[in-house]
Fold this protein.
Amino acid sequence: ILVRFEALIAEHPNSVEARTEYAQAIGFAGEIEKAQLHFDEALKLDPLNTRIYVNMGFALETQGKNEAARKALTRALELEPAQPNAWAKLGDVSYNENDIVGYVKGYHEAMRLDSKDHEIPAEVARTLYSFELVEEGDRFLARANLIEPTSDMTRTATMWRARMTDDSDEVERLAKELIAEGVSWRHGMFVDASLMLLTVMEEQNREDDAIAFFAEHVDGFGDFGDSSESLRNSWLQAVSLPTWHGAVSREEFEKIAEKTHEMLEEREEEGDGNDFPYVDLLALEGKTDEAAQRMLNILSARTGARWPNFDVYARQRHLAAVVEDDAVKT
């Protein structure tokens, strides 16, 4: 996609849309300084374009640049006060700053401006459930159900409610339903469904059932060590490590661990590293100190602070010693 955008910009250097979309894409990929240069070029071409400021705010917020993101989004709202995406993203900035009231206000305004978008109330419901605010989340989930009750986003929020109310059967039903239907990676829906399903089945000592389900519904599941795997599949391989650890022999798991180390190291060399799978792998290998350091990397970055599922992730049995590390607890 990035290569196509680069070719399009080379052919049409004055295309505001191409520069804006490209800048947002590379900003999401972590190249925020390069992204800012393209946003600035787009603004020279069209200084009153609201979308440029909105996309800039999205890219900056993704990389934890909260103050700069707020500035860009505020400018977008000066140009177009009824811009729901800008209000929602301002809510995300507030969330990053531990301001849950500001988060709800931003999304509430976005919901008022775009009353037909079911994803806005569903996202708020999911976040409130992650804080165990079930009654407050129910108000937003009810709205999402009125608009689009069978959507992936609404069902994901419903799954969150089931998890927070200890309804494991409902979590399993919804997670399996979403995964079998090919739920999108968007908004972390695949992440939520797969992690919650794995966690519930591990709690019930049903690792074999979990492996059988994913092998049936996710192509390539269990093919460890292939760095060419999609982000979706490579993430699933990593997060399923505790399941494999509980289902196969020690010798078999050591082979899986070796292949996974090779894949993760190759990804890091390519600039596509991720601390989450390292935490799981190192913890399962009994290397608690190394796992704790990787966990600290997560907690000091936007990734850990912004992911509603982090508490569910951190409560997994194999991470108990890591979470008890003094620096991690602090």
In short: The mean pLDDT is 88. Residues 250-269 form the longest helix (20 residues). Residues 8 and 188 are 29 Å apart (CA to CA).
